[in-house]
From TrEMBL:
The chain crosses the membrane at residues 12-35. It comes from the Bacteria. Residues 43-52 have a biased composition (Pro residues). This is Secreted protein. Keywords: Membrane, Transmembrane, Transmembrane helix. It comes from Kocuria carniphila. Residues 37-71 are annotated as: Disordered.
Amino acid sequence: MNPTDVSRSRRRLIALISAAVVVLLLVGVGVYGLVPGPRTTSDPPPSRPSPAAPGTTDRAPRELAPIPETDDPEEFARLVAEALFEWDTTTGLMPLDYTSVLLKVADPSGIEQAGLASDIAGYLPTRDTWVELRKYSTTQHLEITNVFVPAAWAEAEAQAQPGQLAPGTTAYTVEGIRHRQGIWNDEPTSSAHHVAFTIFLTCPPDGDPCYLLRLSVLDQPLR
């Protein structure tokens, strides 16, 4: 390959990367929501728990179901939201197992994968916290109460240059209640916490399955 071809290839790569991360560069759209923030979901239980009975966490890990393919953006946003919040520390799985399920529906180019993995880490307990929560048979799931395209997304589309956003790229803000269950003081107990976040995704107009781009910081959604 001659120097001209190398230079042309570099320019194409830079253009591709710039287009892929345009959501991070748009001004005035709450870009703060696209960088990792405090891990509000990994806080330890509010009261002193009692360890689970011996052997309850020793069973072999089960395989997690993949996120179903769909070309419907709202349906995809709901599926991602549920997968992001639904976990069970008693299965023998670890946070990275849940992360891998979400990464399997990530941007197929791979450009956003590292950023997305960092986003997901902000929603899941750390490994050390997970090991602690496992002692108390802690599980979690999300009850979705509202899903909508935020008004701020229209501003992002208006500011984007032609070709910066892939066709079918959009954002959905999800509101819901995070439910957590476990065993404390030898008794079943639960807690509920309102959450909100934004999912950035692309559903190609040719009918190919939707894929995940990035996530906002938890409780810092676009409105």
